[in-house]
Amino acid sequence: MPGPDELPQLLTMDGLAERLGVRHRHGRRLVDERRAPFLEVGRLVRFDPTEVAEWLRSTHVPAAHASATEISPSRAPSGWDPVPRAKEQGGDR
Question: Which pTM was predicted?
Answer without folding.
Answer: 0.61
